[in-house]
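Quick one, tokens below:
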């Protein structure tokens, strides 16, 4: 992969945090910044995926609720009889 050098102006406190993180992780300053930028650029795609998952779970939850509402009257009619039979 071709690499392009980019000059950035960052506030000194931010550079200090980047340097601390780089030292702790055993990475270069460039690697830390590169990973942060890559994560930031991936977030929209991940956010869209999460939204799709939440929507799917909501739909499943709604279907489960509807099924439960249909099943509950049947269950209340039949389950007590079955429990009484088991006790005999």
């Amino acid at each position: 992969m071709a690499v392009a050098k980019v000059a950035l102006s960052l506030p000194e406190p931010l550079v200090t945090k980047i340097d601390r993180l780089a030292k702790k992780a055993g990475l270069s300053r460039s690697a830390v910044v590169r990973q942060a930028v890559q994560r930031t650029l991936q977030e929209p795609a991940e956010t869209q995926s999460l939204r799709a998952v939440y929507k799917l779970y909501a739909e499943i939850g709604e279907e489960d609720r509807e099924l439960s509402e249909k099943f509950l009257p049947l269950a209340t009619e039949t389950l007590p009889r079955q429990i009484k039979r088991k006790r005999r």
